[in-house]
Amino acid sequence: MARAKNFNAGPAALPLEALERAQRELLDYAQSGMSIMEHSHRGKEYEAVHDEAIRLLRELAGIPDAYDVLFLQGGASQQFATLPMSFLPAGKSADYVLTGVWGEKAVEEAKGLGQVRLAANTGKEAPAAGGGSTRSYTRVPKQSELELDPAAAYVHLTTNETIGGAQFHYVPEVKAPLVADMSSDFLWKPFDVSKYAFCYAGAQKNLGPSGLVVVIARKDFLETGRKDIPKIFQYRTHAKNNSLYNTPPTFGIYLARNVLLWIKETGGLAAMERRNRQKADALYGVLDKHAGFYVAPVERASRSTMNVVWTIGRPELEEVLLGEAKKAGMVGLKGHRSVGGFRASIYNAVSPEWVAVLTDFLDAFAKKHA
Ligand SMILES: Cc1ncc(COP(=O)(O)O)c(C=O)c1O
Predict the structure, then answer these.
(1) Is 310 a catalytic residue?
(2) Is 127 helix (H, G, I), strand (E, B) or coil?
(3) What is residue 96's DSSP assignment?
(4) At what angle do helices 44-61 and 250-265 cross, to 10 degrees?
(5) Is the per-residue pLDDT at 131 higher than 80?
(6) Comparing C-alpha atoms, which of 89, 215, 222 is closest to residue 152?
(7) Is 200 helix (H, G, I), strand (E, B) or coil?
(8) Which of 41, 115, 79, 50 is nearest to 200 (CA)?
(9) Distance 188 CA to ligand 1 centre (A)
(10) pLDDT exceeds 90 at position 354
């Protein structure tokens, strides 16, 4: 089978080794005569997988003991709501740093639940791909641009905006607890968990299949959450029960375990960073080489190492490019429907070889059509 060179933004490419292991174990997990999906979440086979996934995540990301690791459901979008529900009490406000569409969605949910301030907003009015106007985000703010409220309940940022392609390459210094949506750049490199009070990530980019969300949060911060909301929405409920309060997404967690093992066997997060930087450099390199033909709108200092976005000045060539790329085995290069153009998501599992095929293709395409 020829594997598609998959540049989708999420659900996205998974490491072949993780999938092959799942294939080998699918019908008969650990000689139990059934698949891991069919095991009770209270049984010893599943619990071993669950605990191994948490242990590997703690080891790879260097998560301190003062932090809980939770496996939740409902997508990162549910976190947009459960966060303010828990941590934005009446009389306080939360600071949001807006650098793209996902941040907008987080703000929208928080506004429905409490008071929100924008500590920064790098969006500008721009024409939308399908007509009308939208906001275009091409950078993250500098530290000096952040207008922070030291008394904020928390400061929320999106470390990597999957659609616009702007990524934070520094961790803002803030007084209030720092909360980050890391959905599309989780585990792309080593990161200092201790700078954050609360991080969350949907799994379907760098960690596994959709249906699973990881939360890494300081225990004392979690304890400050409201107690007068339904138990299922209180983070402490899941923390106290090792994410086994109710039935977790067992197969998603199993596959995340396989992906974490692959990361470990590949050399951990430092190796991921080397691999990811090399891929991003190659791809931005070819876009810059043909800068008159391709337009990479994100400012250099904010360029995403995970989601590389670009357009071409000649819209009539868009479908041609996508069609030829598909013939060459590449999928997922169409930009998000709200912004158009192209996007190559080059998460951990996207190999440098696939990126080399894409860069050679873009180079040849530009030479032919420029
Ligand atoms: C940065 C970011 N945040 C949040 C989400 C929403 O995730 P979900 O669809 O799992 O709710 C996405 C989805 O792609 C994302 O890229």
Answers:
(1) no
(2) strand
(3) E
(4) 40
(5) no
(6) 89
(7) strand
(8) 79
(9) 16
(10) yes
For the chain, give the number of residues.
370
**Ligand 1 neighbour 158 (Cβ under 6 A):** yes
Distance 311 CA to ligand 1 centre (A): 23
The answer, yes or no, to whether residue 370 has pLDDT greater than 90, is: no
181 flagged as catalytic: yes
- Asked whether 76 lines ligand 1 (CB < 6 A), one says yes
Number of helices followed by number of strands (H, E) in the chain: 10, 14
* Token duo for residue 350: 């996207």
pLDDT exceeds cutoff 90 at 313:
no
Cβ of 77 less than 6 Å from ligand 1 = yes
Task: Report the run of H or E that residue 98 belongs to, with start and end.
Answer: strand 93-98
Average pLDDT over residues 166-188: 98
Least Cα distance to 162 among 15, 301, 304 occurs for 304
Asked if the 17-265 domain carries CATH number 3.90.960.10, the reply is: no
Pairing assessment for the beta strands 294-295 and 307-312 based on DSSP bridges: antiparallel
Please state, in angstroms and rounded to a whole number, the distance separating the CA atoms of residues 69 and 307.
26
Q: Enumerate the domain spans of the chain.
A: 17-265, 268-369
pLDDT at residue 339 in the model: 80
| Average model confidence (pLDDT) across the chain | 96
Ligand 1 mutation pick, 167, 183, 338, max ligand atoms within 8 A of CB = 183
202 lines ligand 1 (CB under 6 A): yes
Q: Indicate if 205 belongs to the active site.
A: yes
Q: Are 73 and 212 in contact (CB under 8 A)?
A: yes
Highest CATH level, class, for 268-369:
alpha beta
- For atom 1 of ligand 1, the residue with the nearest CA is 183
User: Which pLDDT belongs to residue 237?
Assistant: 98
Helix 250-265 crosses helix 16-25 at what angle (to 10 degrees)?
A: 130
Q: What is the pTM of this model?
A: 0.97
User: Could you check whether 17-265 and 268-369 share the same CATH topology?
Assistant: no
